[in-house]
Write a structure and sequence with these properties.
Chain lengths: 112, 116
C-alpha cells in the first residue's frame, strides 16, 4: 500500500489555466504539507495543515490554494498558471508537527 | 531562524569507499535533524533522524549520522559505498516544542556519484 500518494504524476498545461493536484495519505497522520522543488532541486515548504487547520502559508502567491477536506487529504489548486510555476510538487505527512515527514512521489508540473 | 548548509553539491566516491556527506545547521532552538535520499524521478525517503536522544543515529541502508552540537554538524556516513547509493541527499532541520511549526528547512542537496 502506498503511504502517501499524489495524482497526477505528470501535469502539462498552458499558461493561464487552472489545475489541481491531489494528495492522500493512509498513515493516519494529523499533519500534511506541500513542498515545491525547483529545477535546481531546492525544496521549500509551501503549506502545512494540522488536523485540517492551516498552520503554515509560506508567502505563497494567493493563486495557490490548499484544501483539506479531511485529515487524510490535502489538495493543491493553482489558478492562472505561470511559467515560473513549473516545478515538482511534493506532498508529505507526519504524525505530529515536527515529527519525521513521509513524502509522496511528486507531481511534475510543466507550464508552457 | 533556522538554516542548513550542505558542503559540496557533488561528491564522487569509488564503490566500496567511505561515504561522507557534510551538513551544518543553524538553529536558535534545539533542532530535530533529518537526512533524506531522493532517487531519480522519485520522492524523498527518510534515511535517519535525530530527535535529541542518542547523538549517533543509525538509519537504513547502512547509513549513520552523528549530531555534534559544538560543531553544529550532522554529517552522514556509510563505511562502504554501493552503486545503488547513487542519488541526491538532503539534510533538513525542524524546530520542536513551543517553536514547532513542523516546517522542514532543507539544505541545497548533495549529489552522490558512485564509480565502479
Amino acid at each position: 500500500d502506498t503511504a502517501v500518494s499524489q495524482t497526477p504524476k505528470y501535469l502539462v498545461t498552458q499558461m493561464g489555466n487552472d489545475k489541481s493536484i491531489k494528495c492522500e495519505q493512509n498513515l493516519g497522520h494529523d499533519t500534511m504539507y506541500w513542498y515545491k522543488q525547483d529545477s535546481k532541486k531546492f525544496l521549500k515548504i509551501m503549506f502545512s495543515y494540522n488536523n485540517k487547520e492551516l498552520i503554515i502559508n509560506e508567502t505563497v502567491p494567493n493563486r495557490f490554494s490548499p484544501k483539506s477536506p479531511d485529515k487524510a487529504h490535502l489538495n493543491l489548486h493553482i489558478n492562472s498558471l505561470e511559467l515560473g510555476d513549473s516545478a515538482v510538487y511534493f506532498c508529505a505527512s507526519s504524525q505530529l508537527l515536527g515529527y519525521e515527514q513521509y513524502f509522496g512521489p511528486g507531481t511534475r508540473l510543466t507550464v508552457t | 531562524a533556522q538554516s542548513v548548509t550542505q558542503l559540496g553539491s557533488h561528491v564522487s566516491v569509488s564503490e566500496g569507499a567511505l561515504v561522507l556527506l557534510r551538513c551544518n545547521y543553524s538553529s536558535s532552538v534545539p533542532p530535530y535533524l533529518f537526512w533524506y535520499v531522493q532517487y531519480p524521478n522519485q520522492g524523498l525517503q527518510l534515511l535517519l533522524k535525530y530527535t535529541s536522544a542518542a547523538t549517533l543515529v543509525k538509519g537504513i541502508n547502512g547509513f549513520e549520522a552523528e549530531f555534534k552540537k559544538s560543531e553544529t554538524s550532522f554529517h552522514l556516513t556509510k563505511p562502504s559505498a554501493h552503486m545503488s547509493d547513487a542519488a541526491e541527499y538532503f539534510c533538513a532541520v525542524s524546530g520542536h516544542g513551543s517553536s514547532n511549526t513542523g516546517k522542514l528547512i532543507f539544505g541545497q542537496g548533495t549529489t552522490l556519484q558512485v564509480k565502479p
